[in-house]
Design brief:
This protein is an alpha+beta fold. The chain is 36% helix and 23% strand. The chain has one domain: Gyrase A, domain 2 (2-Layer Sandwich), CATH 3.30.1360. α1 packs across α2.
Length: 107
């Protein structure tokens, strides 16, 4: 079993402007998700395209991939463009990190 210690966010890899933008987008992602689906290797978060654009989601993924390179990122547009999905997956143990970072334990 992998050690939990390999899952940590190194926000220091982002400059101050990138950190501010990433924080803003993270707050938006947390506030606007319409559904959360648990998967075997991660979670899928769903959004309405009118509330969160694909460009914003791509910006978030670009920054998050720098500070959390252990994630596998998937962006999907489903149901004829009415649902935007972000799937975060990874190695065994990553789900615990996702639950903490996305405040899923409190839902």
């Amino acid at each position: 079993m992998e050690s939990q210690s390999e899952f940590y966010c190194n926000i220091g890899v982002l400059n101050s402007d990138e950190r501010a933008r990433h924080r803003q987008l993270t707050e938006k992602l947390l506030a606007l998700r319409t559904a959360t689906l648990e998967m075997a290797d991660g979670y899928q978060f769903q959004y309405r395209p009118g509330h969160l654009s694909l460009a914003e989601l791509a910006d978030w993924v670009a920054a998050e991939s720098k500070c959390c390179p252990f994630f596998d990122f998937h962006i999907d547009l489903l149901e004829r463009g009415t649902v935007v999905c972000l799937r975060l997956t990874g190695k065994e143990g990553v789900k615990r990190f996702i639950r903490a970072e996305f405040h899923l334990d409190s839902e």
